[in-house]
Amino acid sequence: xxxxxxxxxxxxxxxxxxxxxxxxxxxxxxIENVLAGRNTFVLMPTGGGKSLCYQLPSMLLPGTSIIVxxxxxxxxxxxxxxxGFSQTGQVAHFLxxxxxxxxxxxxxxxxxxxxxxxxxxxxxxLTKQENINFLASVQISFFAIDEAHCISEWGHDFxxxxxxxxxxxxxxxxxxxxxxxATATPKVQNDIQKNLNMLDADVFxxxxxxxxxxxxIRPKREVEKQxxxxxxxxxxxxxxxxxxxxxxxxxxAELLQVNGINALPYHAGLDATTRANHQDAFLMEEVDVIVAxxxxxxxxxxxxxxxxxxxxxxxSIESYYQETGRAGRDGGIGECIAFYSYKDIEKLEKFxxxxxxxxxxxGKQLLHEIVSYAETSVCRRKFILHYFGExxxxxxxxxxxxxxxxxxxxxxxxxxxxxxxRVVSALDQTQKSKHYCAFLSGHINADIKAYKHDAHPLFAxxxxxxEHFWNAxxxxxxxxxxxxxxxxxxxxxxxxxxxxxxxxxxxxxxxxKQHDFTNTDDDIxxxxxxxxxxxxxxxxxxxxxxxVAKEAGVPPFVVFQEPSIREMCLQYPVEFDExxxxxxxxxxxxxxYGDAFLELIAHHVxxxxxxxxxxxxxxSLVNKSGSKVQLIQNIDRKLPLEDIAKSQGKTFDxxxxxxxxxxxxxxxxxxxxxxxxxxxxxxxxxxxxYFLNAESxxxxxxxxxxxxxxxxxxxxxVRIKFLSVYGN
Length: 728
Prior knowledge:
Blueprint: H1 2-7, H2 10-18, H3 27-35, E1 40-43, H4 50-60, E2 64-68, H5 72-85, E3 92-95, H6 101-112, E4 118-121, H7 123-126, H8 129-136, E5 140-145, H9 165-172, E6 177-181, H10 186-195, E7 202-205, E8 213-219, H11 223-233, E9 238-242, H12 246-258, E10 263-266, H13 272-283, E11 289-292, E12 305-310, H14 317-324, E13 334-340, H15 342-352, H16 357-375, H17 380-387, H18 402-405, E14 410-412, H19 414-426, H20 433-441, H21 446-450, H22 467-479, E15 483-486, E16 492-495, H23 497-504, E17 510-512, H24 521-526, H25 535-552, H26 556-559, H27 562-571, H28 576-580, H29 587-607, H30 626-636, H31 641-647, H32 652-664, H33 672-678, H34 681-693, H35 699-705, H36 712-727
Parallel strand pairs: 1-6, 1-7, 2-4, 2-5, 3-4, 5-6, 8-13, 9-11, 9-12, 10-11, 12-13
Antiparallel strand pairs: 14-17, 15-16
Helix pairs in contact: 3-4, 15-16, 20-22, 25-27, 25-29, 32-36, 34-36
């Protein structure tokens, strides 16, 4: 072992094999440790150069290194990269389920003949007895475990098969292990070392600080428009957009394409060839943007990703840190923007239901941390580094996060911190954040009742503030070192020495005002009111609607429905295309009634110097829906509505909803062929006369008007005819 390093000094080997003139950070020390035959634990942020720590020793040591890697795409990417540095394609191989028998035989032959220095193996392949027998028969230099956080149940990407690695290694060969990860809290690090039986390992821990990254959390308001606007401002730059679901990935990718942005989707639901092609297109700069689930990016070494956008908040700080770490690997600027709403957390909590209790508790604790990060007003860099057990002075952030760049107002918080610490102490340091927030604010929930804490003398002593406020105090107390979370008890809050001292002798404590994450897209969809809603414009548009309706001789709801008017007060459309992007406004309706509304809105925007949400026309996917076209074609062919519903696998009610959407948007439909089978002409005219003079299109009012003579379906169908005749 020592001979090979003497004959080939590692600095010369670095230049010869990989073309680099110098090592980054602790790379040289780590490589020397591996070459010396010692167990090695490497904690190095994304982009720090972990791969080289096992690739270079593999080239220098006799035999073949076994590199355990969690993803086939990751293995292929790394094998291709290593082969790119070598004169022969045999230097690195992978062994996994994607290979044919012939390809597996070739891999084994190259290993036996000493051509292969690195063999990447999936943990599942490593558990197969035939592979264990084969590897036990050849010379192994060392084992490397990439993405080692997969070993820990506390890691963000736990894989049960990773827990078996140590026993499998022992069956193959007694050689050193190097475990590497970019994301591990002290708890996860200890868990990994214990599981691999390598507590004796030399630990190399680089700083988690990525000084070139900018962190920002935005409320999830008009998120699609914000994303498109951002990308267009960074035209030609490479970026990744992460979404939680495959469906959302497809939607966003399609939306970007419609708006002239060169983007592709990537998720596990796509076939392997498509995924590989999309990944290669991104690496080869044939596309600017990849919209992906977390399936994309592990080990993807594209140095010039300039931004990472999270459409949905991730389920842990580890996931967030690793995904944002794909920006700015070349040392250049990398902007990390995440959109956050309370609804996202509710969705993530639902994912945990049905899992084992321990897994649920761990998942909830990880979720609580990412919520704390999203809502915190302190330096985001300081928060992240504190989470990973590293101290950081916020003054060194240099405005590289939104909280430092635009600091929130600060107030004297000594009184609130004292209240909090006193309650934590009085309840014997046995509860989690949520319990203390409810206790202080006087909210009697099931847990408060179960512990009979509503009878405690300190209960509701902080009721002048709500639970959100007390949560902010707890977050800042934890980051400030006054409290800490006990991992073993899933996040129970405990007093630190600093907190105990403060309780005895309170000193100054500055408290940041919390962020406002209300009125996000979800809230607006449920209830379109609040600070973002323009009441003045709303009144003017309602008056205009009455005027236009009177001139046309139709009820106001025929011109534009209430939801359309309300959305105009949020979006301020001043161009025809912008008006057709409003819910319930099609091209026909916009052409018939739109001019007066656009003129009024444009005048209002200019008079009040309103900065509109869109500085561009965001084309909507709704108007290019194929199902709408198919529905209209089926109506033109005079197919019975029941048959249309059956052929599309939909209910009759959902077909009626689609028909209503079509006519409210301004498209004519002729349902006479169907209606004539249902109601005679006199009945139809009676209902049409009612709607012509009605103040609203409400079905309940219509039903009562006719004393139940007509069914809801009959009334809906005639209303569709009425809107087609008089509205469109």
